[in-house]
Amino acid sequence: MTQNFQKILQAAPSPFLLLDRELRVVWANEAYLQTTGREAEKLFGRKLMEEFPSDPDSEAGKMLRGSFERVLRDAVTDHLPVIPYPIAGADGEVKERYWSATHTPILSSDGEIEFILQHTQDITEFYDHSASVASPVGLQADMVRRAREVANQNLEQDAAINFFRLIFEQAPNFMVTLIGPDHVFRTVNEAYYQMVGHRDLIGKPLREAIPEIEGQGFIQLLDDVYRTGKPVRQTGAEAFVQRTPDGPQERIFVDFIFQPLSNSHGETVGIVVQGHDVTAQKLAEVSLREAEERFRTMAHVMPVHVWTALPDGGLDWMSDQVYSYTGATPGSLEGDAWANVVHPDDRAAAAEVWSRALQNESRYDTEFRIRRADGVYRWHLVRAAPIRSADGTLLRWVGTNSDIHDQKAMSQQLADLNTTLEERVEKRNRELEELHTRLAQSQRVEAIGNLAGGIAHDFNNLLQVMTGSLTMAAREMPAESPARSRIDAAMRAVERGASLSSQLLAFSRRQPLQPRPLDLRELLSDIDDMLRSALGEGVSFDIRAPETLWPAFVDAASTQNALLNLALNARDALEERGALRITMANREFSAQDLAGEPEMSPGKYVEIKVMDNGPGIPPETLEKVFDPFFTTKPVGKGTGLGLSTVYGFARQSGGRVTIDSVLGAGTTVSLLLPRAQDAAEPLRWHDPDSVKGGTETVLLVEDDAEVRDATSAMLNDLGYRVRSAQDPAAALSLAQAEPDFDLVISDVVMPGKMSSRELADALHAERPDLPFLFISGYSQDAIVRDGRVDAGVNLLSKPFSHDALALRVREALDAGGTAASTKPDNRTRRILLCEDDALIRLDIADILESLGTNVTETGTGHEALQMLKTGEFDALLIDVGLPDMSGEDVAAQVRDSLPDIPIIFATGQSDVPAAQKLGKCAIVHKPFGDRDLARALAKVGVLPEVKTLASV
Histidine kinase domain: from which residue to which, for each copy (predicted)? Predict the structure, then answer.
């Protein structure tokens, strides 16, 4: 304040008071101090209401405080014509007094209210004057009273305004008043601030106050309302607001109405915006929809049937599994129509249990049979639980159907077992006795086989020396020489010795077999003339086999020898008079069919039956026919190794041989051989006239000096240059010193720290394509696994002839290293797994990795196709039902670009037509386990066949 201002107000006869924004006394003139009876030094600095207290709810308190609020809020002068306000005098006595007051705002340089100047007049004298209204004083008193009435009315109006302002500010819904075409904020309540953030809005256009709202459509709607004067209402409108200056834009949802404000001329001057923030409700709805979708997705992929029902029991939804299983049209089983697929005998009981559950609102638990799409009824465990709201009201039912048909069948079997336990125990004891007998026989054969194998190694070496020496001796003398016949006789004796050695190895399951897919009809046709000649004219002979006969996975020469053995045994039994028939058929055996056969695996086999109508075999003889060296023939007429050789060959091949005989009616020998997975290969017999030698260099490794010399002589005779070594270590040193050789011929069993197999691996590390030919009289599993020669191994069994050696050496050299490698393909198979359900994909990947494969995962068909274009995979495992395209369509596209890749379909359906059409495919039906998956991978050649797998 300036000195001039103070002088002016100090000289004024009327009371003046200066207050700050907190209504604290800053200054008062002399007239104010005299009127109120106050001293300046005691008054200045005190709050007005402390110096002149009043009840805030009293008439005076409300009027004075309301005036100050209007000045501070609106920055305009406010008048109080009459205000009753008692004050205490200098003597402390409080007297009722009436005042007329004016409150003027004093603004600072930046336009803000800095002080309030109060000008008051004490009008108590006029208000209390009781003179006639005709007198001047009476007229003034009347005016004062009327002024007080107006003041009271203004007070009531202020109270009403304050009441409505309180409602406006605290309303739960947001309310805004926008003025003019630029939509300037006039009023804003707290709900709106909470929604958009506490920012400076009053007096600013919408575009300036909330800039992020631009482009969201709301300003255009406001423009339309202002232009047309028509209100607009929306529900669930989406908006994005930035509640803090540096914060992110947040997504909100609102229900609102834009209501135009019109003046007395009907012109729109503003818009009232009123509405509700429904973001929480919308998010809850989205969450509920997502939860429902997750439930439906989970229900559709679950192996059990899932359904829901209304509180009254009417079914209103079923998973895809229900319709896929029953074959019903989607939606056709809702309501009470579900009973149409229930077995007629089970409907009444099921309906009664369901009705009782509905009445008691308790769990539903029962069992009944449901008709499958193919018309077969299967037992299901059916359960449902009531779903309730927070207050306990029943909302709906959620139920499942679980297939328990197999469990029911097993329970029935257990019940049957219990009822016939004594009979079954007796039967099992007989089976155990038979098994014990077979085990004892197997142990006898094993012991004899170990002895025979050791003998065979040395025996075959001796025979090989004799074969080589006799062959070379015969070549060195004229054909007309008398000694030539003696040499031929000696060679025949060697051949008989070799046959005996081969039989010893065969019955003891030590014969190295080289199985491959063969057509048994072609195999029998190849020896048809030999069979008929051996049987003689007195025995009628025919062969019967279906056109659809499966190929067998067997060794060709061993199979022919077994059939010749069986035919010759039948001929001897018929005594050259009678009938012999050989039949072939496809057979499939389950685990139950093979009970008591621990060496047999469930699966598919080719069966050969050799049947004669001879005298039959007595029971006491029949149980010994497969024992080695057992014979009923006179001394010198048989070795007793014929049937034991067939037995050993069948077991070593993964099959079996059984014999049935009836005295006076004949004998049937049944030979089961495993089915091949691949198509039959043609027989490969060589013309002896096509045998030739060569000029290549051969590295010969043989520990027996005589065998080494005899073999070297035959190789030299064939034109080959030969380098010899007595063991693998010496051979490796020779190969490193003189590496210019074309073929390695090595005995399998040799002394020393290095084996022949290790020699082959060492040489192939330097020369991967080097041909390798093994020769052996007894392999001791060095190159044989489970009686079968390892894949890719060339083997020539001792004793071998000059022509056999020439043929196998030429084959090995002409084939190069493609068939010589002794290393199996042990690389890790890469599988591309395509399954959209994350949990199922995780489980399948774990199974695949446990099977030793490397797994790459994807969830869509398009991603699978792209991965197959850019990566190398050994197989594709794909779900039939994918979200973007069918698994069968994906497989068809894959087959066009990758014709040889194996494909395994995973499905809950009964059939996959594409698997038959595309070829090289397998199917696993959900739910499946590791054994099912391993079997499918073996079927398409990705993993080796596991013969111990049993069906699940």
Answer: 454-677
Distance CA 373, CA 327 (A): 5
Token pair for residue 337?
């129509």
In the numeric block, which tokens belong to residue 336? 């009470």
Separation between Cα atoms, residue 847 and residue 926, nearest integer Å: 14
pLDDT score, position 943: 81
Q: Which among 462, 515, 489, 507 is positioned nearest to 784, based on CA atoms?
A: 515
Which pLDDT tens digit goes with each residue over 352-408?
999 999 999 899 999 999 999 899 999 999 999 998 888 888 888 988 888 888 888
Q: Provide CATH code, domain 830-939.
A: 3.40.50.2300
What is the spatial distance between Cα 336 and Cα 551, in angstroms, rounded to a whole number? 53
Token pair for 548: 């659809």
Measured in whole angstroms, the distance separating CA 377 from the mean position of its chain's CA atoms is 30
Coil, strand or helix at 100: strand
Contact 399, 308 (CB under 8 A): yes
Q: For 844-875, give one letter per residue: b (16+ CB within 10 A) or e.
A: bbebbeebebebebbbbbebbbebbeeeebbb
Q: What are phi and psi of 477, to 5 degrees?
A: -125, 150
Q: How far apart are CA 736 and CA 329, in angstroms?
A: 76
Pick the CATH number of 3-169 from 3.30.450.20, 3.60.150.10, 1.10.150.20, 2.130.10.10: 3.30.450.20
Sort 490 into a burial class: Cβ within 10 Å, 0-12 / 13-18 / 19+: middle
Q: How many CB atoms lie within 10 A of CB 810?
A: 20
Which homologous superfamily is 513-674 in? Histidine kinase-like ATPase, C-terminal domain (3.30.565.10)
- In this structure, is the dihedral angle defined by the CA atoms of residues 783, 829, 944 and 902, taken in order, positive or negative? negative
Distance CA 316, CA 230 (A): 44
- For the segment 206-254, what is each residue's pLDDT rounded down to a tens digit? 999 999 989 998 999 999 999 999 999 988 888 999 888 888 998 899 9
Residue range 284-412 forms a domain whose CATH class is alpha beta
Distance CA 648, CA 657 (A): 9
What's the whole-number average pLDDT of the chain? 79
Out of 7-16, 298-307, 403-412, 857-866, which region has the weakest mean confidence (pLDDT)? Answer: 298-307
CATH topology of domain 171-277: Beta-Lactamase (3.30.450)
pTM of the model: 0.37
Instruction: Report d(CA 810, CA 805) in Å as an integer.
Output: 8
Name residue 44's amino acid. Answer: F
Cβ atoms 237, 256 nearer than 8 A: yes
Q: What's the rounded Cα separation, in Å, for the pair 232 and 590?
A: 76
* Residue 311 · residue 394 · CB < 8 Å: yes
Confidence at residue 135, expressed as pLDDT on a 0 to 100 scale: 43
Residue labelled with tokens 């920012």: 199
Contact of 425 with 460, CB cutoff 8 Å: no
* pLDDT confidence tier of residue 700, bands split at 50, 70 and 90: very high
Return the domain boundaries, the chain: 3-169, 171-277, 284-412, 513-674, 830-939
Element (H, E) at 526: helix 520-526
What are the residues facing 232 on neighbouring strands? 258
Check if 3-169 and 284-412 are the same fold: yes
| Contact (Cβ atoms closer than 8 angstroms) between residue 865 and residue 889 | no
Distance CA 574, CA 439 (A): 32
Tell me the per-residue pLDDT of 43-66, one tens digit each, with 9 for 90 and over: 898 998 888 888 888 877 888 888
Paired sense of beta strands 656-662 and 666-674, if any: antiparallel
pLDDT at 167: 55
Asked if 835 contacts 859 with a C-beta cutoff of 8 angstroms, the reply is yes
**Rounded Cα gap, residues 620 and 624, in angstroms:** 8
Structure tokens at 450: 């170990």
Q: How confident is the model at residue 136 (pLDDT cuts 50, 70, 90)?
A: very low
663/617 Cα distance (integer angstroms)? 6
